[in-house]
Design a protein that fits this description.
With about 90 residues, the protein is α+β, with helices and mostly antiparallel strands. It contains three helices and four strands. β2 and β3 form a beta hairpin. The chain starts with 7 loop residues before the first strand and ends with a helix.
Length: about 90
C-alpha cells in the first residue's frame, strides 16, 4: 500500500507542518514519484529530512513539487515495502 497521506506542496511553509517523528516520506515531481526516503529518529525526523531535501536537492530531488509522509515504527522496513511495491507496479 502506498503512503496514505495527502500530497503537500514541497516548500518551507508546508514542510514546517510535517511531523517531528520517525517514518517514511515520498517526493513527487507533479504526478511522478521521484523519491522514497526514511527518517530513523534520534534527530532525523520526517520534517528534518524533508527540509534537508528542500535545501540541498539531495539525491536529485531538487525538482520535487509535492511530498507525503507516514509515521512508521520501523522506517527501514516500511521504506523497503514501498520500494518493492513501486518496482512491482513499474
Amino acid at each position: 500500500m502506498p503512503i496514505a497521506s495527502p500530497r503537500y506542496a514541497f516548500n518551507a511553509t508546508m514542510i514546517a507542518g510535517a511531523p517531528p517523528d520517525p517514518g517514511v516520506f515520498a517526493l513527487w515531481e507533479n504526478d511522478e514519484l521521484i523519491y522514497y526516503g526514511r527518517a530513523l529518529g534520534s534527530g532525523a525526523t520526517i520534517q528534518s529530512r524533508l527540509r534537508e531535501h528542500l535545501e540541498t536537492g539531495a539525491h536529485g530531488t531538487s525538482c520535487a513539487t509535492h511530498y507525503g509522509w507516514e509515521i512508521a515504527a520501523n522506517p527501514r522496513v516500511r521504506e523497503a515495502e514501498l520500494l518493492r511495491e513501486f518496482q512491482h507496479s513499474h
